[in-house]
Amino acid sequence: MLGFDVVDLGPADHPEPGDSAPAFTRPLVTDEFWEDRSLAALVEEHDGPTVLVFTPMTGSFLAKYVWDELTARDWDERVGQVVGLTASTPYEVTRFLEDNDYPFRFFADPGNEVAESYGIAHDLDGMTGISEPRIAFFAIDAARTVESAWVATDWPEFPDYDHLETDLGLK
Amino acid sequence: MSETAEPPITFYRLQGCPFCERVARLLGEYDLDYRSRFVEPMHSDRDVVKRVAGVRTVPVIVDATTGVTMAESENIVGYLETTYGDSDADRPDAAAASAGGGD
């Protein structure tokens, strides 16, 4: 099926449904500017679940595959609030949003500490000193409680998007 | 909950821009609550600043308390001093600000 080898990342010790999503503040990047925002404020101001989507660095095909899929599935319109997070700088995220015309906002976390706090950090083989998130989806309610979670256990591994949409109540 | 309250001052700035840093210093000096919105180096990528202030230069501040939107660091420094400063204070920043406007 896949034309390349898949690395087993093993299970991640990530927040499960019912757990509190770890709090953080990072620059939130739009196509026009970035400013510090806290996850708590973001989920609180929105009526309905926020889906926090972790992907590898911008520029990787892994990130592009995920965001192309979510754009094609109109998640910006069908899911209340979708927010990306990756281990790239705000400048790189801005370029990624513009180049691909993605209708989403991203937290920029070049140090990858947020992924670390969610238990989904992945140290890249052959890129010493660089860590990025596993592909992961967390649906979070307004009180910052995790409602559903999907985390890759292989690298690369993409979710079953239809299944994800069922979990999110989109089907 | 203070974390979710919007600060009254929105400060459009460019990383490393000396004119912006001058405004940041003064905001800090007056202990004003503000949020920083960073824009890109290319003027053509600054539609938000154009929309808000009519120019593509930064710094720009939007002060919801007074309803003032202002560009050019010299003007902003003067505005902050007049609005929030102690007029008797001897502030070297005020003199320095007249040297330039923005980036």
UniProtKB/TrEMBL annotation, chain A:
Highest taxon of the lineage: Archaea
GO function term, MF aspect, one: antioxidant activity
Pfam families, A to Z: AhpC-TSA
Gene3D superfamilies on file: Glutaredoxin
InterPro entries: AhpC/TSA (IPR000866), Thioredoxin-like_sf (IPR036249)
Name of the molecule in the record: Peroxiredoxin
Every Alkyl hydroperoxide reductase subunit C/ Thiol specific antioxidant domain range: 17-147
Automatic annotation (TrEMBL), chain B:
Composition bias type Low complexity, residue spans: 94-103
Occurrences of domain GST N-terminal (ranges): 7-88
Species whose genome carries this gene: Natrinema hispanicum
SUPFAM superfamilies named in the record: Thioredoxin-like
Region (Disordered): 83-103
Organism classification: Archaea, Methanobacteriati, Methanobacteriota, Stenosarchaea group, Halobacteria
Cited InterPro entries: Glutathione_S-Trfase_N (IPR004045), Thioredoxin-like_sf (IPR036249)
UniProt-recorded name of the protein: Glutaredoxin
